[in-house]
Design brief:
By secondary structure, the chain is mainly alpha-helical. It has four helices and two strands, in the order αβαβαα. A two-stranded parallel ribbon has the order 1-2.
Length: 117
């Protein structure tokens, strides 16, 4: 339900929202920036690396809740471009804005479907 709500909200906003596997890892910075590590996970279908989503899904599962995750690229492990280096900052800001609008629209749609809003 959450995935479909996110996809519907993205479509309504005119944003293409790719769907795929995410790998949550605590060694995101140095441990994951090796080409062999990136290629191994890409071969398994992983599209993104990040640090928090698995915790979100674990807590939701333990509490019997639904969860979803929508991400905005801040660093590209393949090219090395990163917002913390001052690269792609405006593109990142636009992505963050879109991500937040989509998440809020999806949450509102889910609340309406449950009769909560």
């Amino acid at each position: 339900r959450v995935l479909w709500a996110l996809l519907e909200a993205a479509a309504a906003a005119g944003v293409e929202l790719p769907v795929g596997l995410t790998r949550s890892t605590d060694s995101f910075y140095e441990g994951e920036r090796r080409a062999d590590v990136i290629e191994r996970w890409q071969a398994l279908g992983v599209r993104t690396f990040e640090m928090e989503t698995s915790a979100l899904f674990t807590i939701a599962g333990v509490r019997g809740l639904e969860a979803g995750s929508i991400l905005c690229v801040g660093s590209n492990l393949v090219t090395g471009e990163a917002t913390y280096r001052g690269q792609q900052v405006e593109e990142y800001r636009r992505g963050q804005d879109a991500m937040l609008q989509i998440a809020l629209a999806a949450a509102a749609a889910l609340a309406d479907r449950r009769g909560g809003g």
